[in-house]
Amino acid sequence: MAPPTVVLDNGAHSMKVGIASDGASPRLVPNAIVRGKADKRHYVGDQMDNCTDFSSLYYRLPFEKGLLVNWGIERTIWESLFKNVTKLEPKDSRLLITEPCFNLPAIQDNYDQIVFEEFEFGACFRAIGPELCLLNDLARVFGDNQSKSASTSVPDCALIVDSGYSFTHIVPFLKGKAIPEGVRRINVGGKLLTNQLKEVVSFRSYDMMEETYIINDVKEKCCFFSKDVYQDLDICKKPLAKNTIIQEYVLPDFINTKAGHIRAKGTAATVADQQILAMNNERFMIPEILMHPSDIGLEQAGIPEAIVQSVDACDPAIHGLLYANIVLVGGNANIPGYLERIQQDLRQLVPIDYEIRIAKPENPVTFAWEGGNRLISLSTEKELQKTFVQRKEYLEYGSDVCRRKFGSL
């Protein structure tokens, strides 16, 4: 009988983890060790479910600037993950794990060492997230209901825009292989947006510099992409009665309320609603950094420009195919108006001869995990034996065998 396979999309903000099987869904686990200020307790990964007071949490993260550098923290999180979430003995299972694009060779060697020597997994396969996204049924994502594909065949061309916690990567693919010269990275992700919102809110109202968890929740509940920034800025200047953009976020007190919420317009304040955070132009100016990083002094292209740069770096023969197969994934794709804004800005930059077709999966956060799960579920045991590096191969040849087998980036 084939050993079970753990699929682990090891993101810098959250890990998506589950045991591969047809129709399975992943569990999202914070990739951090968090210390509560009130109870002085440490929460490792999945233990965050037990946390009740999210004020002034102190985060210890294994990732820095998108690269896994603190292996002491990551090892502790993985130990808890495999023990409490997957509940599998690593020796008797396989691991499919994601890594960042253009990961450093020294860090890749560390991945292999931890997986094979410390956790002693029977076999392992490492891939970048966008590569796994390709393995999903993209025709269905684009709304082609004729597609009844039950194989992991990949489209001839696709462009994956992965906007996550640390970075935004634009990765073009040809016949399932990433085109290295076409890859573009923008140093803007969810972490930078949250930090920027912390600074703006702290300057304008309450000091929220230590409230990462709360401000992240504010960002997820309040922010959106504007279709016309200048028009919306004019609306923000209007009196309260005519301002259709302003929202009031009720901050949690962790006694009566555990989570913040948006207060409906016209609702009278209650005693519990002690602290109100007014969100006006911050709602769309914070996400705007993804479209124009120069707003905060970063000399980089925004997402629409970076897509054009990425396509231009590829063979002109496939430009049309790339523009017609753009897939948006990653946590920032959940911000309302994201797809529409990229479509609008891209249309102004791309020659009219090219059709622009952009799709966003139902859950952009777990899309890479779903691709990995599909790979395992639809492949034969013989195919998986070829794809994965077995532990005995690693012990004989070291990381060289992993470099030969893994990834196009």
TrEMBL record:
Gene Ontology annotations of biological process type: chromatin remodeling
Domain of life: Eukaryota
UniProt keyword Membrane, yes or no: no
Compartments, as annotated in UniProt: Cytoplasm
Summary of subunit composition and partner proteins: Component of the SWR1 chromatin remodeling complex.
Family assignment from sequence similarity: Belongs to the actin family. ARP6 subfamily.
Protein's name according to its UniProt entry: Actin-like protein ARP6
Organism (species): Mucor ambiguus
Source lineage: Eukaryota, Fungi, Fungi incertae sedis, Mucoromycota, Mucoromycotina
